[in-house]
Amino acid sequence: MAYVISSECIGCGACAAGCPVEAISEGSPYVIDADACIDCGACADTCPVGAPAEA
């Protein structure tokens, strides 16, 4: 199951930089491409506010 980014996102870009498959794109909040996401949790580990979570 892919991760999603909640409205808690502060737009810092840490999740995008931490994604090994570049599945995250800039937006408000940032957006995770569910088809590209490998469910590794790297985005959640790098986010300072815990915005990415499993869908």
UniProtKB/TrEMBL annotation:
Q: Does the keyword Iron apply?
A: yes
Q: Which cofactor does it need?
A: [4Fe-4S] cluster
User: Coiled-coil annotation: which residues?
Assistant: none
**GO molecular-function terms, A-Z:** 4 iron, 4 sulfur cluster binding; electron transfer activity; metal ion binding
Keyword Transport part of the UniProt annotation:
yes
Write down the species.
Mogibacterium kristiansenii
Gene3D superfamilies (UniProt xref): 3.30.70.20
Q: What is this protein called?
A: Ferredoxin
Q: Which PROSITE patterns match?
A: 4FE4S_FER_1, 4FE4S_FER_2
**Taxonomic lineage from the root:** Bacteria, Bacillati, Bacillota, Clostridia, Peptostreptococcales
User: What does the UniProt keyword field contain?
Assistant: 4Fe-4S, Electron transport, Iron, Iron-sulfur, Metal-binding, Transport
Identify the residues that the record assigns to the 4Fe-4S ferredoxin-type domain, covering every copy. Answer: 1-25, 28-55
Q: What does this protein do?
A: Ferredoxins are iron-sulfur proteins that transfer electrons in a wide variety of metabolic reactions.
